[in-house]
Amino acid sequence: MFGDTVQLHGRDDELRELDRLRESVRGGQSAALVIRGEAGMGKTALLRYAAQRALPDFRVARIAGVESEAELPYAGLHQFCAPMLGHLDALAEPQQSALSVAFGLTGGAAPDRFLVGLATLSLLAEVAAARPLMCLIDDVQWLDAASSDILGFVARRLAAESVAMVFAARDGAAGANLGRLTGLPVMTLSGVSGEDARALLATVVPGRLDPGVCDRVVAETGGNPLALLELPRGMSPAELAAGFGPTAGGAVADVESHYAVRLSRLPEPTRRLMLLAAADGAGTCRPSGGPRPSSASGSRPPGPR
Ligand SMILES: Nc1ncnc2c1ncn2[C@@H]1O[C@H](COP(=O)(O)OP(=O)(O)O)[C@@H](O)[C@H]1O
Ligand SMILES: [Mg+2]
Questions:
Q1: Running along the chain, 305 residues long, what does each successive block of 10 average in pLDDT?
Q2: What range does the domain containing 198 cover?
Q3: Do the beta carbons of residue 126 and residue 132 sit within 8 Å?
Q4: Residue 100 lies in a domain
Q5: How many domains, the chain?
Q6: Which of 52, 84, 146, 270 is least crowded, fewest Cβ atoms below 10 Å from its Cβ?
């Protein structure tokens, strides 16, 4: 349900921390965590791990900020809460009404944000009364401000509801949204190194790689897993030995230009389809004549990334 299990190299401490968090929530506590790191560092991979390990005992609520919805107040919160709205009736009337108005279920003046926050907290507590709840909020940098305000508010008030909230935010892009999560414990992801980085590189470079070349590739990518997996793709050992050249924009900029080169070699219809898919932040793009997505509503969480 949450994608294939990827063997993660060099994240033992991080996995242990996620395991600890999950077990304390299973035991009746609540907990929150913000995972930070540059693009490609493995934030989504850690959330996927958390989702996979939480099942089947936990209910998993997993969403991701959508860049094209970043200016729509409450769009992210709507994505998050929509599957739980069956519990709305259990909330105190002012909270019920605040959430209903925020989501356009009933008319009324713009709701008090404090009440929307309390309502969301109550809703999570209601849902978690049946079984522990693992909330995974990816791509915080693309959440609308109102939603990240509310989700940060809720995460800071968790007590003993059996709710976990794990956020993932891209360094350098999350800006103000990261500020909205102030006060929560932070896990900062840096590059993988040493044996782990070499093992990761070996998964994409066939044959034996000269240890010196290997170390240089790791150094040039800063141990960024995405860069380690993508940059050597299609390169011969001799090309790899020559290195990637100066990395003015860092490993991720290199990966982007690498993708651009690979894209330019694809047939024109394939490139057009990829352009359409890239422009469709909700992930519902389909080739003409292809099957319709099962739901066109904004409440459908995007699939694992
Ligand atoms: N520690 C790791 N070991 C192996 N593969 C990894 C590791 N971390 C990330 N990856 C892989 O690298 C790619 C980028 O990771 P991802 O989680 O999407 O990064 P982010 O969400 O931080 O941008 C994915 O293909 C992921 O499976
Ligand atoms: Mg990600």
A1: 77 97 97 96 97 97 96 97 97 97 95 97 98 98 97 97 97 86 97 93 84 87 92 76 59 69 84 84 57 42 38
A2: 194-265
A3: no
A4: yes
A5: 2
A6: 270
Give the separation between CA 203 and CA 181, rounded to whole angstroms: 36
Whether 252 is covered by a domain: the verdict is: yes
| Residue 272: alpha-carbon gap to chain centroid | 26
* Pocket (CB within 6 angstroms of ligand 1): 6, 8-11, 37, 39-45, 192, 200, 225-226, 229
Q: How many CB atoms lie within 10 A of CB 139?
A: 25
Residue 277 lies in a domain: no
pLDDT of 207 = 77
Q: What would the two tokens of residue 183 be?
A: 């006060």
Question: Considering the domain boundaries, does residue 283 fall inside one?
Answer: no
Number of H helices and number of E strands within the chain?
13, 5
CA 38 – ligand 2 centroid, Å: 9
Which-ligand-closest: CA of 221?
A: 1
Q: How many CB atoms lie within 10 A of CB 105?
A: 12
Tokens 């991979």 correspond to 45
Give residue 73's pLDDT. Answer: 96
Helix, strand, coil shares, percent, the chain, to 5: 50, 10, 40
Q: Which atom of ligand 1 is nearest to the CA of 6?
A: 27
* Residue 27 and residue 161 share a domain: yes
Tell me whether residue 287 is exposed, middle or buried, using C-beta atoms within 10 angstroms of its C-beta: 0 to 12, 13 to 18, 19 or more. Answer: exposed
Kindly state whether residues 124 and 254 are assigned to the same domain: no
Ligand at shortest distance from the CA of 10: 1
Strand partners, 114: none
